[in-house]
Write a structure and sequence with these properties.
The mean pLDDT is 94. With 394 residues, the protein is an all-alpha fold. Helix 7 runs antiparallel to helix 8, helix 10 runs antiparallel to helix 11 and helix 11 packs parallel to helix 13. The protein has 2 domains: 158 residues, no CATH class; 212 residues, no CATH class.
Length: 394
């Protein structure tokens, strides 16, 4: 018997499914936060936060924007995994409120104090982890419990971030740990949805070679990724760790090639998933080259390939696809959406390029920030009517 979905819910459409509010808020905040950060980092604006401009930027991307998107995805995916009704209405509203409280607390931490701000900020991820665990356990969907591991690590990284900033004045280990947790989510979830969506499209539109099924090679790549990230978080400039990161990057290149992305050129909504994943091996390779060729590649190159590249573009690609699919719209990418994604990818490439160009560093950082803002505010603006209205209405 099919599980009923939204029959008992009669409230606002925005609170009917987790992806609706959190994709909109995540996209909007990603753009607005960069608009605030650009004048901050160049000394033209001061906010009432105890974080320095760089730490505030890193924190709000990793623990503000990213958790919003991850929450939107999980609250939409978990009901499909478990067959249970989605979190909606008042409980969903509470999660939204906790996310907003965290953003306000961090922004005004100089007024309320860093300890209070840290506690308030960490409540959101704690609640999301609790809700996700409860739904998976209640649905007896044991195999998906593994998503709780990177989610819990992300929560711990947030606690560590506040502690590091409080005791040493800046973050170090926490930022790498958070990036590692986020990339592991992409490795796990992306490794499921990218070949699946590609296979579905190819089987319907272009019969022939299909993405390889998950096998021992994928499992080995995941194990190497965990080992490489463990070394990178602990000692990012370790020579042996660099070799491990470099090797893992090439494993992910092979993994991506096995998913037949080259056959999806005619469908941008599928292609962008492959392009986004491509930033992931780039991050591993650049992070691996940093200790091996320090005079050529800085540690910031890999960090931004992971952050602005893999995390930024993958979240945007997934938000677009999920928003279309779950609101009853055709799974096709409009010209505007393609332009939005192109801006996000260009923002990532420009930010990576800035790490190699001291002479034009400020210009490239500003250009990257502007492109990023256009991309994410563009997404929020273009998809708002789909997210705020009941499914099937445009």
């Amino acid at each position: 018997m099919p599980v009923p979905r939204l029959k008992t819910y009669t409230g606002p459409a925005i609170l009917s499914y987790g992806f609706r509010p959190f994709f909109f808020l995540g996209g909007l905040y990603a753009g607005l936060a960069i608009l605030l950060w650009l004048p901050m980092v160049f000394g033209q604006l001061r906010l009432l936060t105890t974080f320095d401009p760089v730490d505030w930027h890193i924190h709000e991307m990793l623990f503000g924007f990213l958790p919003a998107v991850v929450t939107g995805f999980l609250l939409t995916a978990v009901p499909n995994w478990t067959g249970r009704l989605p979190v909606q209405g008042r409980p969903l509203g509470v999660l939204i409120a906790l996310w907003m409280i965290g953003r306000i607390a961090v922004l005004f931490s100089a007024l309320i104090g860093p300890v209070a701000a840290g506690v308030l900020d960490c409540l959101f991820l704690l609640a999301v982890a609790g809700v996700t665990a409860n739904e998976i356990l209640a649905g007896k969907n044991w195999r998906n419990l593994k998503v709780l591991i990177p989610l819990t690590i992300l929560l711990f990284a947030n606690v560590l971030f506040h502690a590091e900033a409080f005791f040493s004045g800046t973050s170090d280990y926490a930022r790498r740990l958070a990036v590692a947790a986020a990339i592991m989510l992409i490795i796990l979830i992306g490794g499921r949805i990218i070949p699946s969506f590609t296979r579905n499209w190819l089987a319907r539109e272009k019969p022939g070679r299909l993405p390889a099924a998950f096998n021992k090679f994928d499992a080995a790549t995941i194990v190497f990724s965990i080992a490489a990230f463990s070394a990178w978080v602990a000692a990012p400039l370790s020579y042996s760790g660099g070799l491990l990161m470099l090797g893992t990057g090439f494993l992910h290149l092979v993994r991506l090639a096995r998913w037949a992305g080259d056959r999806s050129l005619r469908e941008p909504l599928v292609l962008v998933l492959h392009l986004s994943y491509l930033f992931l091996p780039a991050g591993f390779i650049l992070a691996g080259l940093a200790p091996l060729t320090p005079s050529t590649v800085s540690s910031a190159a890999g960090l931004h390939a992971f952050g602005a590249g893999a995390i930024g573009t993958m979240t945007l690609a997934v938000m677009m696809r999920a928003s279309l699919g779950h609101t009853g719209h055709a799974l096709t990418m409009s010209r505007f959406s393609q332009a939005v994604y192109a801006c996000a990818a260009a923002a990532a490439l420009t930010r990576i390029a800035a790490t190699f160009d001291d002479a034009d560093f400020e210009t490239l950082v500003v250009l990257s920030g502007v492109l990023w803002t256009i991309a994410f505010i563009g997404f929020a603006t273009a998809f708002a009517h789909k997210l705020f209205r009941p499914s099937g209405r445009s």
